[in-house]
């Protein structure tokens, strides 16, 4: 860059307006991913799959929000209609501002979507005058007023009105009376709109018919963040205009509704007519998302147990954010397609079978090296083994079959998982978890039937009361009936037969029926005292077992055992962990460390890693030292850091400098016997000072007044 | 018959209409009218009126100004977020919109005065002009020169103008320490029970007799007068509960004259209203619905019943740690969180000022590192110091469960306070099986 100026000085060069070419996502995806050849197709697959998942989540969110939004809309409509009534009671208390307190849970960033859809819905069906404000934009009353006015008047202003706005855009007019004038003008105009104008007349007429004066809705997105003083003043101003301006508030509350009372004194809260709306709790929200996105054979992409565990624990332990969970899923998806060349087979059946035929030699070699495939090969006969390892076409055929098997596995896995969950979720103390995701995690990890809890659950199932057992079996049969695979159809018919037998039992003459009654009654007692501790429960169960052994089993008991055996059979047949399936690597993403590193960053650990082993980030082999110490040719700051680790709470700067100079001199290859060895010269001094101030900036040391020429150390451990 | 209000400057029928509109405030209105004098005469420069909430200050002035057709500017100080808005209002209502447009962007007081004088020279006052300022207590927070200037605005602009200040606070709390022109003080006393009865009875329901409504108001006041004397609140409550009162009448069980039966019917209901709708535990809309559906033992929970907050697992522990850091003296941390701390007796271990309960003194500030140190020792598993732990602290601050007391710009060693109650934290710690009382110094 050059200037035509002859004088010396600093010149500012603004970046040229032409932006650097933004590269497409695809470019970044394919740039350094495994298996270049298929990367483009994989990117396409990944994108398609993500779009599908995204669409699904959007539908899901909409459904979840529907109930609360509908009731909110009803509230808004009701408010605007009661205002128009002119009976005595409503006239007497017309000065209250209708307010909806919307409790949304502690994760504030997640609310954005809800508010957006609320905003759109209100705009579409109740009133054109909606504005939403955020606490961070409204530190003082003036800004709040300004935001409200801008939001309302800009959005609804027609072209010709905009000129007016331009004439007096000064903030002097930033008062509610301006808004009220604008509102009266607006409503008057829309009621006098004649058919000749370009407005959508019919729509307008209808609108006009229903609400002559549409309410003005103000949404406070995060009530907790607002300055109480500002809010109080704003509300008291608004209440002065309520007769002219049909206002309505929506408070977004993250914690609990009692915050309203904490923030507003009685004199202000008496101006509001607050109605409470509680949204779905975020754990329930997550459960639905998992149910629809993870526990389904619809999407070929799967997470393995560890990744799932990481995502769920981030949710439960850290942020309660469903949005982050979905983002995590997206990350895993992207990583999977990016790092696994065989992910090209992770798609719909037809496409997958086609893609198998397109596999390159290198891809087939990767298939041969997959641990699950090796296990599979070992089980085959010798001739077949050789064929699989050498004949590419044969391998392709085998792969097609294996892919089909994997799909079948998924098709039966989820229905059976749901059945097992329906049955075990009735049991006292939930031996296999209260939520289906817990059961899913257990199943992903290892053979669930080898689990102790599973065995105790089966024992408990064998003692279930009749009505409970039958209702849950009905639910199971519903689940199985909706499954499409052949195996599931078969299981469904078997279960139906069993259910029919139960029905048949009822029809048996009473003399026989008496017996099961007497047996089940102690179990009923047991069910009632669910709260008893496990020890007591086991004791009673054991006692009952003993007494039962002596007795002959009733037909009901026999049947019940049969059912439990049947369920057990289904579980052992269909719920082995995915790791046991051949080619599971195609669909399952398993790098939990990557996900954890990306989603749950540990800044301090990475800084310490960088300082203690610089080769980790610099990727310079020469810096590597075997015993974990820093080589003396490491960057200055690493040496200073290493030396400071050896000090106590207070560090003498001069000693530190000396030590530093010694190490650096050795690095420069000076002769240790030389006179100047370890002497501090200006350059070393400057380098030292720079690294010390860098350490101070990173928060490892700070200056102290306790001792002259000393600094205080701030971190411990990490040696 | 002629009323209390009399003044040669105003027509009698006008004054009589005023009198009808302001029941029980005739005396104060009469005083005001005599202070105002005849329209064309100069009046006292500033009048200060004080009285409790809903004692009729604004109402009386509004009616006077309107019925006597006096030129006036009514301004609420809450609304005037800046002095400019106030000036603009005044100029607009006296000289029209065009006058206000001459105001510069952020006008000073002297500019306002100059502009006013200029306008006045074009259209001098034929009658006294009034500026009525509601919620005048907010003027104390405005520029220091605004209040003294308003008090002697008559002198400054050299016009027949009177400023009337309305406030809930006595004048003594206003007086600036540099001294100022003393306004005339006028007190509006609270309405007595009889007066409340009289005023409330005026808005009777059109389909019932005035006597019935009056007896209803009598019952209402019997219940509420001891807790609430705010006219507006009482009127609100009267409107809300009247339907219920009339229920036996519409069903034909009771005649209008049987007030005792009506009283028996409504009294428990009003008591319930006092505990719920009066303190805004339930909204008036919900209250009406409850009346219609005939509640089954308070199925509806009030606002304060919802105190439960769902938090992520580590946030709960962070909150517990913050509570402990706020209410335990820092010196005792060793005793609670170090395994082999040795025995420290409470009595000789204490400093004198620590003997009072920390809960009575309120939360104390603590530094971030102390919070984290306690957090790592109370949480049962090993937790990596991830970024999300730190972001949880700041989200607790935005949820107002913690408050940051050092300035947000200060990145180095931020300090916090825990702003939640013992009940809240015990509820939270119960969900994670943590016995917080065992770790609190006050409960040792």
TrEMBL record, chain A:
Signal peptide: none annotated. Residues 604-716 form the Origin recognition complex subunit 3 winged helix C-terminal domain. InterPro entries: ORC3, ORC3_ins, ORC3_N, ORC_WH_C. One of its GO terms (cellular component) is nuclear pre-replicative complex. Residues 185-211 are annotated as: Disordered. Keywords: DNA replication, DNA-binding, Nucleus, Phosphoprotein. Residues 357-591 form the Origin recognition complex subunit 3 insertion domain. It comes from the Eukaryota. Its main location: nucleus. GO terms for molecular function: DNA replication origin binding. One of its GO terms (biological process) is DNA replication initiation. It is found in: Nucleus. Residues 1-345 form the Origin recognition complex subunit 3 N-terminal domain. Component of the origin recognition complex (ORC) that binds origins of replication. DNA-binding is ATP-dependent. The specific DNA sequences that define origins of replication have not been identified yet. ORC is required to assemble the pre-replication complex necessary to initiate DNA replication. Binds histone H3 and H4 trimethylation marks H3K9me3, H3K27me3 and H4K20me3. Component of ORC, a complex composed of at least 6 subunits: ORC1, ORC2, ORC3, ORC4, ORC5 and ORC6. ORC is regulated in a cell-cycle dependent manner. It is sequentially assembled at the exit from anaphase of mitosis and disassembled as cells enter S phase. Belongs to the ORC3 family. This is Origin recognition complex subunit 3. It comes from Gouania willdenowi (Blunt-snouted clingfish). The gene is orc3.
From TrEMBL, chain B:
One of its GO terms (biological process) is DNA replication initiation. Keywords: ATP-binding, DNA replication, Nucleotide-binding, Nucleus. SUPFAM superfamilies: P-loop containing nucleoside triphosphate hydrolases (SSF52540). InterPro entries: AAA_16, ORC5, ORC5_C, ORC5_lid, P-loop_NTPase. Residues 311-440 form the Origin recognition complex subunit 5 C-terminal domain. Residues 23-164 form the Orc1-like AAA ATPase domain. GO terms for cellular component: nuclear origin of replication recognition complex. The keyword Nucleus applies. One of its GO terms (molecular function) is ATP binding. It is found in: Nucleus. Belongs to the ORC5 family. Component of ORC, a complex composed of at least 6 subunits: ORC1, ORC2, ORC3, ORC4, ORC5 and ORC6. ORC is regulated in a cell-cycle dependent manner. It is sequentially assembled at the exit from anaphase of mitosis and disassembled as cells enter S phase. This is Origin recognition complex subunit 5.
């Amino acid at each position: 860059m050059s200037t035509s100026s002859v004088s010396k000085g600093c010149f500012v060069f603004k970046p040229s307006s032409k932006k650097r070419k933004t590269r497409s996502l695809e470019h970044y995806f394919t740039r350094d991913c495994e298996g270049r050849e298929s990367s483009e197709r994989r990117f396409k697959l990944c994108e398609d799959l993500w779009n599908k998942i995204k669409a699904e989540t959007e539908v899901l969110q909409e459904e979840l929000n529907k109930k609360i939004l509908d009731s909110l809309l009803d509230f808004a409509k009701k408010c605007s209609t009661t205002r128009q009534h002119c009976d005595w009671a409503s006239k007497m208390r017309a000065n209250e501002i209708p307010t909806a307190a919307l409790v949304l849970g502690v994760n504030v960033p997640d609310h954005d979507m809800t508010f957006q859809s609320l905003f759109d819905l209100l705009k579409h069906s109740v009133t054109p005058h909606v504005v939403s404000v955020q606490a961070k934009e409204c530190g003082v009353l003036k800004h709040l007023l300004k935001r409200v006015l801008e939001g309302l008047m800009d959005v609804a202003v027609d072209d010709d009105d905009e000129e007016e706005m331009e004439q007096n855009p000064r903030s002097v007019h930033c008062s509610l009376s301006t808004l009220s004038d604008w509102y009266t003008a607006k409503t008057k105009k829309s009621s006098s709109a004649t058919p000749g104008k370009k407005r959508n007349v019919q729509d307008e007429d209808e609108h006009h018919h229903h609400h002559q004066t549409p309410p003005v809705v103000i949404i406070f997105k995060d009530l907790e963040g607002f300055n109480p003083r500002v809010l109080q003043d704003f509300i008291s101003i608004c209440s002065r205009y309520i007769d002219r301006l049909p206002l309505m508030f929506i408070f977004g509350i993250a914690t609990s509704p009692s915050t309203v009372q904490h923030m507003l004194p009685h004199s202000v809260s008496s101006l509001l007519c607050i109605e409470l709306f509680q949204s779905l709790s975020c754990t329930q929200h997550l459960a639905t998302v998992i149910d629809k996105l993870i526990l389904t054979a619809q999407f070929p992409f799967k997470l393995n147990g560890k990744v799932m565990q990481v995502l769920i624990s981030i949710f439960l332990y850290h942020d309660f954010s469903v949005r982050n969970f979905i983002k995590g899923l997206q990350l895993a998806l992207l990583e999977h397609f990016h790092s696994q060349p065989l992910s090209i087979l992770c798609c719909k059946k037809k496409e997958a079978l086609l893609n198998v035929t397109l596999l390159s030699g290198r891809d087939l070699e990767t298939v041969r090296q997959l641990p699950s495939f090796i296990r599979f090969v070992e089980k085959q006969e010798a001739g077949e083994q050789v064929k699989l390892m050498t004949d590419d076409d044969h391998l392709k055929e085998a792969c097609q079959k294996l892919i089909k098997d994997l799909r079948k596995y998924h098709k039966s896995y989820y229905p059976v998982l749901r059945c097992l969950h329906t049955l075990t979720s009735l049991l006292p103390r939930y031996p296999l978890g209260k939520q289906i995701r817990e059961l899913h995690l257990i199943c992903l990890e290892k053979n669930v039937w080898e689990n102790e809890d599973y065995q105790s659950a089966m024992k408990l199932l064998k003692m279930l009361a009749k009505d409970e057992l039958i209702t849950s079996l009905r639910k199971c049969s519903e689940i199985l009936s909706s499954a499409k695979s052949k195996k599931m159809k078969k299981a469904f018919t078997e279960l139906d037969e069993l259910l029919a037998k139960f029905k048949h039992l009822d029809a048996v003459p009473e003399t026989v029926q008496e017996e099961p009654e007497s047996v089940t009654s102690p179990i009923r007692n047991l069910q009632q005292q669910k709260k008893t501790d496990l020890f007591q429960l086991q004791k009673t169960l054991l006692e009952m077992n003993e007494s039962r052994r002596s007795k002959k089993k009733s037909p009901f008991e026999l049947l019940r055992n049969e059912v439990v055996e049947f369920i057990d059979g289904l579980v052992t047949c269909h719920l082995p962990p995915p790791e046991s399936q051949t080619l599971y690597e195609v669909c399952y993403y398993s790098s939990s460390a990557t996900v954890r590193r990306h989603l749950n960053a540990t800044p301090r650990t990475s800084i310490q890693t960088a300082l203690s082993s610089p080769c980790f980030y610099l990727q310079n082999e020469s810096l590597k030292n075997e015993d974990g110490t820093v080589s003396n040719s490491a960057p200055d700051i690493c040496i200073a850091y290493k030396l400071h680790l050896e000090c106590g709470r207070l560090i003498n700067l001069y000693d530190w400098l000396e030590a530093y100079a010694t190490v650096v001199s050795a690095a420069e290859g000076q002769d240790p016997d030389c006179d100047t060895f370890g002497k501090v010269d200006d350059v070393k001094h400057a380098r030292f000072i720079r690294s010390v101030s860098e350490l101070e900036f990173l928060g490892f040391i700070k200056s102290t007044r306790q001792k002259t020429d000393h600094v205080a150390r701030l971190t411990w451990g990490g040696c | 018959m002629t009323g209390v209000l009399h003044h040669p400057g105003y027509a009698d029928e006008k004054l009589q209409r005023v009198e009808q509109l302001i029941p029980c405030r005739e005396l104060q209105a009469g005083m005001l009218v005599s202070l105002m004098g005849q329209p064309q005469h100069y009046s006292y420069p500033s009048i200060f009126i004080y009285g409790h909430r809903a004692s009729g200050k604004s109402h009386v002035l509004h009616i006077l100004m309107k019925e006597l057709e006096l030129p006036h500017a009514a301004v609420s100080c809450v609304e005037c977020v800046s002095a400019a808005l106030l000036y603009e209002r005044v100029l607009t209502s006296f000289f029209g919109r065009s006058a206000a447009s001459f105001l510069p962007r952020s006008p000073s007081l002297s500019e306002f005065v100059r502009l006013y004088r200029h306008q006045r020279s074009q259209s001098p006052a034929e009658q006294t002009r009034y500026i009525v300022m509601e919620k005048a207590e907010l003027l104390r927070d405005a520029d220091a020169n605004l209040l003294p200037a308003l008090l002697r605005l008559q002198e400054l602009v050299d016009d027949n103008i009177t400023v009337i200040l309305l406030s809930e606070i006595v004048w003594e709390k206003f007086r600036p320490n540099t001294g100022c022109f003393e306004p005339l003080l006028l007190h509006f006393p609270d309405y007595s029970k009889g007066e409340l009865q009289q005023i409330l009875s005026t808005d009777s329901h059109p389909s019932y007799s005035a006597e019935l409504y009056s007896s209803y108001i009598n019952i209402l006041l019997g219940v509420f007068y001891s807790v609430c004397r705010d006219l507006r609140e009482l009127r609100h409550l009267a409107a809300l509960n009247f339907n219920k009162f009339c229920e036996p009448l519409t069903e034909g069980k009771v005649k209008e004259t049987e007030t005792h039966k009506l009283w028996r019917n409504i009294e428990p209901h009003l008591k319930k209203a006092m505990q719920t709708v009066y303190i805004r535990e339930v909204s008036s809309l919900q209250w009406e619905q409850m009346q219609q559906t005939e509640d089954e033992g308070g199925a509806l929970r009030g606002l304060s019943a919802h105190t439960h907050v769902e938090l992520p697992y580590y946030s709960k522990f962070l909150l517990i740690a913050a509570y402990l850091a706020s209410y335990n003296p820092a010196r005792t941390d060793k005793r609670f969180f170090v395994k082999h701390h040795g025995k420290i007796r409470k009595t000789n271990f204490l400093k004198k000022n620590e003997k009072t309960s920390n809960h009575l003194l309120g939360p104390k500030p603590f530094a971030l590192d102390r919070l984290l140190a306690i957090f790592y020792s109370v949480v049962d598993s090993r937790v990596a110091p991830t970024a999300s732990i730190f972001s949880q602290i700041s989200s607790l601050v935005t949820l107002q469960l913690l408050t940051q007391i050092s300035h947000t710009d200060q990145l180095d060693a931020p300090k916090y306070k825990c702003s939640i109650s013992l009940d809240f934290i015990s509820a939270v710690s119960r969900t994670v099986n943590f016995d917080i009382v065992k770790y609190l110094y006050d409960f040792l």
